[in-house]
Design goal:
two-stranded parallel sheet; 3 helices; flat; mainly alpha; single chain; 98 residues
Length: 98
């Protein structure tokens, strides 16, 4: 199963997301390929993080729109890198176990 995700770990349930110690067992994902942004990718994002709903209350509209556009551009870059890895057959060099 291909599982695009925001983070290189999975939290078992919505209500557990604030519990930093809660993580899904790697055995549950033994047949999944989780694709996540790298730390370098995250560092290029505004604020060094993936935007969330709080941006709508914490940021002015112009700043929020500018930030989200940058995130979309970086997302396109990440998709291009994935396409290149798949086309070149080098994807296995970047696969890591949970």
């Amino acid at each position: 199963m291909l599982y695009p995700h925001f983070y290189p770990y999975v939290v078992p349930g919505w209500f557990d997301k604030s519990l930093k110690w809660r993580r899904a067992e790697p055995l549950n994902f033994r047949r999944a390929l989780i694709i996540t942004p790298s730390p370098a990718h995250l560092a290029r994002l505004p604020g060094g993080r993936i935007p969330d709903r709080s941006d709508f209350t914490d940021m002015k509209a112009d700043d929020r729109i500018r930030a989200w556009r940058q995130v979309l551009t970086e997302g396109d870059r990440m998709a291009d890198e994935l396409r290149e890895l798949l086309a070149s057959g080098r994807i296995a060099e970047h696969v890591q176990p949970l």
